[in-house]
Design goal:
The chain is an alpha+beta fold. Helix content is about 40%, strand content about 20%. The protein has 13 helices and 11 strands. α4 packs parallel to α10. The chain binds zinc ion.
Amino acid sequence: MFYFQDPSLLAFQKRVQEQIHRNNLTTQFSVGSIPSDSQLRDVLDIHDYGPLLAVYRQWFNRLQRSKQLERYRYFGDRYLITIDGSQYFNSEKIHCKRCLHKEKSNGHTEYYHQVLQSALVHPDRREVIPLAPEFIRMQDRSNKQDCESVAALRAINKIRCAHRQLPAVIVGDALYATEAVITAVTKQRFSFLLGVKPGSHTTLFEDIAGFRRGGLLDRLQKTKRDGRRYLYEWVSEVPLYATANSPVVNFVEFQIFDAADKRTRHFSWITDLPLTKETIEELVRGARARWKIENENFNTLKNHGYHLEHNFGHGASHLSEAFFVLNTLGFFMHQIFALVDGLYQAARGRFSSRQEYWNILRASLQLMVFDSWDHLLTRIHDPPLPAP
Ligand SMILES: [Zn+2]
């Protein structure tokens, strides 16, 4: 159902009633019989989906072993892993024991689900490789609510457990630029590249203002062909906070000016990677790749076919999260196809939008029975011509 991005469990069930669709489920997925929609929800709600999360690691490792991830190398032999939080469900009526909740000003309680999604990205590549999601939730055996920065610590430890030797740079927004996250990242032998803001890192920006007045910032300027000017400024080994135990970081500020010299973009980051005239441009490109997780991952999942925010059913314990995991697993597989599968790429190449492509794939399954996934893709790519 999620593999083919069916919009609802009911629509999926309805299709299963038709013989052609049922046969396709057997040929494509070796499915024998399909339980009813309520049975399906009950089963998913009771059972822990935990073992499914291992699929992310297994397929990541397969990509790595077959050298498919070489294209994602960054800053020498490293990889970029972005982490970002997102809300995918909220309601005043429906809730489960995993829901987070907050009291609203009108006295009502709002229930919601949030998740921290990590992904391998590269500034030059469209495809992102999602890692296992980390849910932000009511913690078991306690009444304490979780929060994004605590979930980030768990996510960082789990990424290291799943990928013991992966040299990676953790990329995140200013929410993660804290002593706790930097300590966890460093302890797990990762590097970091994190956003900082004057509002949340006051003393750091005061120090930078001082360095700027004293002419102590390193600078590099590049004028692009379209007349835009890129200004890089950086300084190494500054304290993040005005405390004795503060982490010491390298700081970089990046500004873009248009042809009329009006500033159009402005970013600041901290990192432990070395900053020099030779490395600064690659570093900034990596930091800016963070938007990819928002654009390519969450945006595609929410707005371009995966119905991530649709409530397929909420359940009492595992269901809401299980649906999220199954949905992103579908996305994960499709990203892998886009990266490595020539037939998938060729068939996709016949359509301008991915939604149109998947509409045709879904529609085809209702018209005829295909022996296999490859058979389906071959027909989409090369439809038979009418006999002369
Ligand atoms: Zn819930």
